[in-house]
Amino acid sequence: MTHHISSPATGSPSRATLWLFLLLVLVVVLGLCSLNVGASRMNLLNVFGADPDDRISKLLFVSRLPRTVALILAGAALAVAGAILQMMARNRLVDTSTTGPMEAAALGMLVLAIVVPQGLPLWARFLVVSSFAAGGILLFLGVLKRMPLRSALIVPLVGLVMAAVVHAGSGLLAHHFDLSQSLRAWGSGDFSAVLRGRYELLWIAAVLTVAAMLLADRFTVIGMGRDFATNVGVNYTRLLAAGVVLVSLIVGSVVVTAGVIPFIGLVAPNLVRLITGDNLRRAIPLIALMGAALLLCADLLGRLLIHPYEVPSSNILSIGGCLIFLGILLHGRSRWA
Amino acid sequence: MIETHAVSKRYGDTLVVDNVSLSIPRGGFTSIIGPNGAGKSTLLSMISRLTPMSSGSVMVDGLDVTRTPGNVLARRLSILRQDNQTSLRLTVRDLVAFGRFPHSGGRLTAEDHRHVDEAMEYLRLDAYRDRPIDELSGGQRQRAYVAMVMCQDTEYVLLDEPLNNIDMRFAVDMMQLLRRAADEKGKTVVVVLHDINFASCYSDHIIAMRQGKPAYQGTPQEIIRDEVLRDLYEMDIGVHEVDGQRICVYFRKG
User: Fold this and answer.
1) How many angstroms separate the CA of residue A279 from the nearest CA in chain B?
2) In the CATH scheme, what is the code of domain A16-37+47-331?
3) Number of C-alpha atoms within 13 angstroms, CB side, residue B214?
4) Within 13 Å and on the Cβ side, how many CA atoms surround B183?
5) Fewest CB atoms within 10 A around its CB: which of A251, B29, B44, B228?
6) Does the beta-carbon distance from B70 to A278 stay under 8 Å?
7) Whole-number pLDDT of residue B166
8) Which pLDDT band holds residue B82 (cuts at 50, 70, 90)?
9) ipTM of this model?
10) For B165-184, how does the pLDDT look when each residue is reduced to its tens digit (9 = 90+)?
11) Which of A231, A272, A278 to mutate to test the interface with B (most CBs of B within 10 A)?
């Protein structure tokens, strides 16, 4: 299949604006659905009706709304983190969940559980786990830098190997300390345990997402390579460092809150690429909305499939993300570098 | 003025650029020619701070290129290298507009748009403005990159093999354009060229490199000569005066 999206409109702003609007509507609709679905029956109308039901508004504000907000923030942030990592690695087939950072963050959770079983304050856990994620990114980029041949397909493969190595290391460690079950729980993230007071970390991810939008042009320049960036006066090394900080803090906040959430950072940017191309100035808002929509969708499906029980959204994403991504690969061009 | 002071580049035991001190005056068109492996591209990319020097220093209008902030230098000197591979899906106009990044940091002003449009028109890219660069032919893409560097609108414009992948018509267009940039806008154009006939026809000044050093420097009349070229390329090259241009003929031996 060599068919590809017709190109003349790729960069047109009106097309981007149209999609921005469509995705915004999609996120709002999915968000409302997400508020309405759950183990106990609830109708949104009852909350704002003439005779407000106290039990229901409590459910809404303590459980449902935090969960929906968490899904939107985490989905948007992970998608943007994926896009930035792709620019830093100069490869569209990588993501935080397929190159090591997410696995490294899960390892961080494990190390915390071993070293300080009594637990640390939330912010401290967040910082430790984010540092592990940063280690994962640096390891991946470091190995890439030393590779003489960076073909389009070798890069994601190296990422997969790195992720698998980190994952295996965590597995060994967890087995030794009898924490395999906890590791499995962090490894398959979901948002069922999100309540008011347990998701606020994700507002940091939201701030970082906005920061990434402000640096969008610079990250596109980075994606064009070191020489290109140097020529237009962008400090390549400094921006790479900023990217590592942004991505690792986003990964850290999501893993501490919900666990490992795969594929969003891979699928969302690649879907948006088909719509508007790679100029992040135009693409980042779409990528964020696409990520939010994908995670909302996965979470909804997880809640509906075996209602009233739940399938973790990460499981849904692993299956769905794989399929969507295969679709993009087959639908798209043969040149993926 | 561009001045290099005792610039060397060493990769392991190989000395690629060997203790080069030269100066390129402000204004005019300078070509760097020489056989493969003479160190032309490496010298150019050290002058433009893309490749770190093993030793020596480079000054551009008195600014040390390794110490001057990147964005200050980016408004004074632009560089286009040979291999501009990218997998990013950017439109031609987006790419060209990045040339304005050092001036406006991404928020394009009316003046920036004027520069972008002008550069696209110069390089006859209007028909492709919304095409993604990954769908262009090699020559079209090369023109898009040159347009980007042109709209960066710097005093010094450095290009490494800008005629790569380009057919004769566009090669001539491109050289005319660079010549005009030097003549009309007073730019200092420095170009690494393989085609010595283009160097002969368009340059004010030629630097001929061999084994990491400038072997000869001078006007085309001084450099494009049988004995100089024989020494440089180790082959017989006949120089003929055709319509007032010094043309090298070397396609058949003996």
Assistant:
1) 6
2) 1.10.3470.10
3) 20
4) 9
5) B228
6) no
7) 86
8) confident
9) 0.93
10) 888 988 998 999 999 999 99
11) A231
Q: Which of A36-45, A121-130, A313-322, B239-248 has the lowest mean pLDDT?
A: A36-45
* Tokens standing for residue A117: 């079983």
Residues of A with Cβ-Cβ distance to B86 under 8 angstroms: 223-225, 228
Number of A to B CB contacts under 8 A, please give it: 98
Q: Integer distance in angstroms from the first to the last C-alpha of chain B?
A: 42
Average pLDDT rounded to a whole number, residues B203-209: 97
Q: Does B86 touch chain A (CB under 8 A)?
A: yes
Inter-chain residue contact A7 with B90, CB threshold 8 Å: no
Closest chain A C-alpha to B86 CA, distance in angstroms: 6
Q: Which residues of B touch A7 (CB under 8 A)?
A: 130-132, 135
Q: A279: nearest CA in chain B?
A: B90
- Greater confidence (A60 vs A129) lies with A129
- CA distance linking residue A90 with residue B124, whole number of Å: 29
DSSP B113-131: HHHHHHHHHHTT-GGGTTS
Domain ranges of chain A: 16-37+47-331
Q: Is B98 on the interface with A (CB under 8 A)?
A: yes
A89, closest residue in chain B (CA to CA): B87
Any idea of the CA torsion for B139, B143, B145, B151, to the nearest 10 degrees? 180
pLDDT in tens, A36-68: 886 666 666 666 665 666 777 777 788 889 999
- The predicted pLDDT at position A46 comes to 62
Of A39-43, A175-179, A244-248, B152-156, the one with minimum mean pLDDT is A39-43
pTM for the structure as a whole: 0.91
Taking the CA of residue B110 and the nearest CA in chain A, the distance in Å comes to 17
Q: Any idea which of A9-13, B189-193, B196-200 has the lowest mean pLDDT?
A: A9-13
Between CA A83 and CA A73 the distance in angstroms is 16
Is the pLDDT at A4 greater than 50, yes or no? no
Cβ atoms < 10 Å from Cβ of A38 = 17
Compare all CA atoms of chain A with the CA of B136 and give the residue at the minimum distance: A7
Please name the amino acid found at residue A85: L
d(CA B168, CA B62): 38
B-chain CB neighbours of A278 within 8 Å are 88-90
Instruction: Say yes or no: B67 contacts chain A, CB-CB below 8 A.
Output: no
Mean per-residue pLDDT, A164-176: 95
Instruction: Name the CATH superfamily housing domain B1-76+156-166+187-254.
Output: P-loop containing nucleotide triphosphate hydrolases (3.40.50.300)
How many other C-beta atoms can be found within 10 angstroms of the C-beta atom of residue B99? 26
* A278 contacts B89? CB cut-off 8 A: yes
Domain residue spans of chain B: 1-76+156-166+187-254
